[in-house]
């Protein structure tokens, strides 16, 4: 039976990632023997389409099939999830590959345990008011461009797209919550906004004009969403980690094969209107781990100077062949 606990209070301002030697840093499942080390798990979640596989796995009995009993605990976002798994306060949590890679490169004892979704084409756009003089990516140079947080998917994928087109464009990225993005552009407090689904559908419905689709070119099917765990947890619970990953991948495969059912089911999880759920661009759900996709993310981050050249994402990623 699914149990959802109320979200915990926000961490105090200035609290840092736990970078101490609370973990060996290894992702090797050295003690795997096929027996689950832990069956009751707490997972940090957000009700977004990108992470819907965890809700699907719970409701469809895929965790139960693996012998797992899960509690889904709402959290404020991926950075909080990373902090909480590093501290051992959650067993698994949502994250995105950009945030997790940057923090891993800085020493956070966190492992990617399952890649859950990639960017669907058309799912992330840069938009402006219909009468804006901004017509192309080039026109965004020096302009204010809203994104939810910097050094994250919005600004990193924009820079990756612009670079691939040989453009030297440097917007002034401003942090704006996604629910406030359309209103911010309409009011003129920002000149352009970035929005992923379902907010990109909301921007289109509000009459906003698309300037760029950051899910195209080098960002097409970019491996964006993952679940993470603390290194110590993975070291001490390799079979449990493998069982969790199998359930997530099974859910991704099931969703991909049942899109109509998924679209009808999504409003109850992601709180999007039924009409939006039927038309929005869906993420590309993963049914297995493709390391080349994660390595592409690492390469992009190296090119932008966000992780060092010697960063090896494979060293921070759990693979099922270790169980």
Automatic annotation (TrEMBL):
Q: Where in or outside the cell? A: Periplasm
Q: Which GO terms describe its cellular component?
A: periplasmic space
On whether Signal is a keyword of this UniProt record, the answer is: yes
Q: Which InterPro entries match?
A: Solute-binding_3/MltF_N, SsuA/THI5
Which segments cross the bilayer?
A: none
Matches recorded under PROSITE patterns: PROKAR_LIPOPROTEIN
Please report the stretch or stretches of sequence annotated as the Solute-binding protein family 3/N-terminal domain. 40-263
Q: Which UniProt keywords apply?
A: Signal
Pfam family for this entry, one: NMT1
> Which residue positions does the secretion signal occupy?
1-29
Q: Does the keyword Signal apply?
A: yes
Query: Its family?
Result: Belongs to the bacterial solute-binding protein SsuA/TauA family.
Protein name as it appears in the record = Solute-binding protein family 3/N-terminal domain-containing protein
What is the source species? Rhodococcus rhodnii LMG 5362
The opening ranks of the lineage are:
Bacteria, Bacillati, Actinomycetota, Actinomycetes, Mycobacteriales
């Amino acid at each position: 039976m699914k149990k959802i606990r109320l979200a915990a209070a926000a961490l105090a301002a200035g609290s840092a990632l736990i970078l101490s030697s609370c973990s060996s840093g290894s992702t090797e499942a050295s003690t795997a023997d096929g027996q689950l080390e832990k069956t009751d798990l707490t997972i940090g979640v957000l009700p977004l389409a990108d992470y819907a596989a965890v809700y699907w796995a719970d409701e469809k009995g895929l965790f139960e099939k693996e012998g797992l009993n899960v509690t889904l605990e709402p959290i404020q976002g991926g950075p909080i999830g990373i902090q909480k798994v590093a501290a051992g306060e959650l067993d698994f949590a949502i994250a995105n590959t950009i945030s997790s890679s940057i923090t891993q490169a800085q020493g956070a004892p966190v492992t990617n345990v399952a890649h859950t979704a990639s960017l669907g084409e058309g799912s992330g756009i840069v938009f402006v008011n219909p009468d804006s003089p901004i017509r192309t990516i080039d026109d965004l140079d020096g302009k204010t461009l809203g994104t939810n947080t910097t050094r994250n998917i919005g600004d990193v994928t924009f820079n990756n797209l612009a670079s691939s087109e040989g453009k030297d464009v440097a917007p002034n990225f401003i942090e704006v919550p996604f629910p406030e993005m359309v209103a911010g552009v309409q009011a003129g407090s920002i000149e352009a906004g970035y929005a992923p689904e379902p907010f990109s559908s909301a921007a289109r419905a509000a009459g906003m004009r698309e300037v760029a689709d950051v899910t195209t070119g080098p960002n097409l099917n970019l491996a964006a969403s993952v679940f993470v765990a603390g290194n110590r947890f993975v070291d001490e619970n390799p079979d449990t980690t493998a069982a969790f990953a199998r359930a997530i991948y099974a859910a991704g495969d099931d969703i991909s094969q049942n899109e109509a059912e998924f679209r009808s089911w999504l409003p109850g999880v992601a709180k999007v209107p039924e009409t939006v759920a039927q038309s929005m661009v869906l993420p590309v759900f993963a049914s297995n781990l493709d390391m080349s996709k994660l390595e592409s993310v690492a390469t992009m981050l190296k090119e932008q100077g966000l992780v060092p050249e010697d960063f090896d994402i494979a060293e921070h990623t759990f693979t099922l062949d270790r169980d």
